[in-house]
Amino acid sequence: MKVAIIGCGLIGNKRLKHLGQHALSIAADTDLARAKQLAESITPHAAVTANWQEAVAHPQIEAVIIATTPNVMPEIALGALRAGKHVLVDKPAATGATELRPVADLARELGLQVRVGFNHRYHPALLKAHELFTNGAIGDLMYIRGRYGHGGRLGYEKEWRASADISGGGELVDQGSHLIDLSRWFLGDFTEVSGCAPTYYWEMNVDDNAFMMLTTARKQVAWLHASWTEWKNMFSFEIFGRVGKLQIDGLGGSYGTETLTFYKMKPELGPPDVERFEFPANDASWQTEFDHFVRDIETGISSGPTADDAVAVWEIVEKIYATRGELVAGARQ
Question: Which terminal CB of the chain, N or C, has fewer other CB atoms within 10 Å?
């Protein structure tokens, strides 16, 4: 499969490393030097352009990877779809639900794949947890508790993530959207949304913390906290069923070794039996995600997360931002 990468920064380079047998044919970036650097890192070298329209119109291209800032993602995705290309766009895929809905609609109309890069679904501990859940190992789900955060870095308030016009929002969008997507993956749609997205530490016009309580029609709850003031990087995702609990900790690297702990309740209750799985290898989620994207193209069956999933995440994010008041309203104008 011939692929175009649009956006040749950190994520674009990460995507390049996981193409496997598939070939990068063209690299596009408004900073042509970055496109050249990415293209020259592989053999044979790919073509380069500063014009994304040229990249998506290339007749040999079958799939387009969009790794730009969120504010331009929907326009590029629509252009790629109109050119007949499948799309892998990094999360959050837009700066709001309104901009993203036309992408979901057009993909459906044309029968093309749009996968949104919620790659956390493809971490091995979460894949194993979802397998156990699907097989009934923990019984009916009751609730989820999730925490995700890091502490930023010097100058963080000056980066593009701190500009709502470019990013769509702060930590609620950045890491909070992963927690929302994972919760939907296990619990389904949420009918009630509450929470708040304050700014405690960083001098920026977007949130640096997000607290969420999401409730399904069956009153199952996802209780979530995403933070840019988590001074020691951490990831914790706990899934509580009537007969067991699945707990995922760490994502590798600075977040600690990725583990899944399965607590199996006994009929008489008391201390549960415990089974622990460790995944010490390097993060394989990006490769697994891309492999699933290719499989979906080959089969014509969308396995998600799709543009519709990303729209659902954005609808939750926007409900929480609606409670944030004038601060976010001003930042998003």
Answer: C
First to last CA, the chain: 40
What is the pLDDT, as a whole number, of residue 248?
98
pTM score over 0.90: yes
How confident is the model at residue 282, as a pLDDT?
85
